[in-house]
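Our preliminary data section would be incomplete without showing what the modeling component actually yields. Below, a chain of 213 amino acids is followed by its predicted structure, encoded as tokens that our downstream tools consume directly.
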Amino acid sequence: MTTIGIIGAGHIGSQVARKAVQVGYDVVISNSRGPETLADLVAELGPRARAATPAEAAAAGDIAVVTVPLKSLRDIPVEPLAGKIVIDTNNYYWERDGRMPALDNGEATTSGLVQEHLSQSKVAKGFNHILAKDITTDGTPAGTANRRALATASDFPEASELVTKLYDEFGFDTVNVGPLSESWRVERDRPAYVARQTAAELTANLARAPRTI
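Predicted structure:
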């Protein structure tokens, strides 16, 4: 059974964990405050889940989900994620993270920065433009009319394919934006951000996204 290592147990990380165990994955989840602070969440998740440190979660996961504030980017463990597919849920909230000129000027993307930090990993953007609560409630079976779609992007086809598989298992269609250099199209304040949309609507929203806000 595939194990997902989750680094960050906030709103998105907790909801990804809930849905992952529901569809049959094992989960090792972590936060910055220590495994003991996750006792209630792990009890809720059941026998498929356990709490760990970020480094332990990274090492235990066959794949990983990184869902920490962008300002904490340098705290993401590098070595235990080497060679693995890492799903990055990040968005740039300058009010929280501080101003980053490369992002303000449209010279970089949040997931591109994660890929630079995790240079030996295969980073794919995922779950960044959906409200956390919708991850466990909005999914529907494949082929359902008006099925909600989510976007991904990666410089590695196998990483995009993994996110596509996970999205489908969670109940969502996928639109592949392309490389990480295009992942800004689905970031904060753009038309696709947290909107409920089908694949066709998402594709249209991605196409009309402005590079800078």
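The mean pLDDT is 97. The first strand starts at residue 3 and ends at 7. Preliminary results of this kind motivate Aim 1 of the renewal.
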